[in-house]
Design goal:
By secondary structure, this protein is mostly beta strands. It has one helix at 5-23, and strands at residues 50-56, 59-63, 73-77, 81-92, 95-104, 110-119, 122-128, 133-139, 145-150, 156-164, 169-179, 182-190, 233-238, 248-255, 261-269, 280-291. The chain has one domain (5-291): Porin, CATH 2.40.160. It has 1 helix and 16 strands. A 16-stranded antiparallel barrel has the order 1-2-3-4-5-6-7-8-9-10-11-12-13-14-15-16. A hairpin with a 2-residue loop joins strand 6 and strand 7. The longest helix has 19 residues, at 5-23. 25% of the residues are buried. It comes from Dyadobacter endophyticus.
């Protein structure tokens, strides 16, 4: 990608969205892009030209073209599944609902439905219609997601951050999962690799997605931002820890001249850091476009 990103990516975007719309045989199940209430709402409007992620490896993303929620995520198509996103206005500015419906491609069978209540750009509650489970989301004083609590139970996930004084930024450092028996899993996040001659420095996260291994919808940007840098290492630790295996992930990125991650390589070590047995590697290209309403 060149520095004159807008001109180049608009043309690419036309081709990408055209192909996405033409090639998905499950689109018969996709709801119309038009939202009934088309009044202007500054909290819902998207800039006339905005960089959008349109593919993440084998996942293709589409966006609503018209209406109040122009530019908001409309559909994610994966190799075996697809998810449709629809939006409903509560009548209060900055207060709306998102319905996420996930289907199998082979049969168009609905397998999961979740409704999210969003207030002032943050999800405050979700309703898992499929499992009949509700979750409440709380945030810290800087707007970072602090806790996800299962309504009516002791199940919760705590998000912990570190503060980098030089960057004046908070970064997610770990999530802790617990239930009535206490904490049972910890997921830790690191933003650099190694040290000295083997170091891979932190890389700015210019187009943030929700963190891996967080149980959040990866592409719904309604939970705040988790870091200013890209995650490069993840370790999953069973709790209480008594020498069990700790699955380990390492991530490498290619960054273009505009600062966007255009590829992501993952190395997975099921038996933990440094153990090569069962190692798995995957690669994903990331493509963007300068999205313009109506394309």
């Amino acid at each position: 990608m060149k520095l004159n990103r807008t001109t180049t990516l608009v043309i690419q975007g036309m081709l990408v969205l055209g192909l996405l719309g033409a090639c998905q045989n499950e689109d018969v199940m996709t709801p119309a892009d038009t939202i009934g209430n088309t009044s202007v709402d500054n909290n819902a409007k998207v800039a006339a030209s905005e960089i959008k992620l349109v593919s993440d490896g084998d996942n293709n993303l589409q966006y609503h073209k018209t209406g109040r929620y122009t530019g908001y995520l409309s559909k994610v198509s994966e190799p075996s599944y697809y998810t449709n996103y629809s939006y409903n206005d509560s009548g209060v500015q900055g207060d709306y609902w998102i319905t996420s419906k996930r289907y199998t491609k082979s049969t168009n069978t609905l397998i999961k439905e979740i409704q999210y209540h969003v207030v002032n750009k943050r999800c405050i509650k979700s309703f898992n219609i499929t499992d009949n489970q509700n979750s409440i989301y709380s945030y810290n004083e800087t707007g970072r997601l602090n806790t996800i609590s299962r309504e009516g139970s002791s199940i919760k996930v705590d998000f912990n951050y570190i503060y980098d004084a030089a960057a004046d930024a908070e970064r997610l450092t770990k999530t802790t999962y617990s239930n009535s028996n206490g904490a049972y899993k910890e997921v830790s996040f690191l933003y650099s690799i190694g040290s000295g001659n083997w170091a891979v420095a932190p890389k700015p996260d210019k187009y943030f997605l929700n963190p891996v291994h967080s149980d959040l919808d990866k592409y719904l940007r309604i939970f705040g931002k988790f870091s200013d840098m890209l995650v490069q290492q993840v370790t999953i630790t069973p709790l209480p820890y008594t020498n069990q295996t700790k699955p380990y992930y390492k991530y490498f990125y290619s960054i273009d001249s505009d600062g966007y991650a255009i590829s992501r390589s993952q190395e997975y070590y099921p038996l933990g850091y440094g153990n090569q047995a069962g190692k798995q590697s995957t690669y994903a290209a990331l493509n963007y476009m300068a999205w313009v309403p109506g394309i």
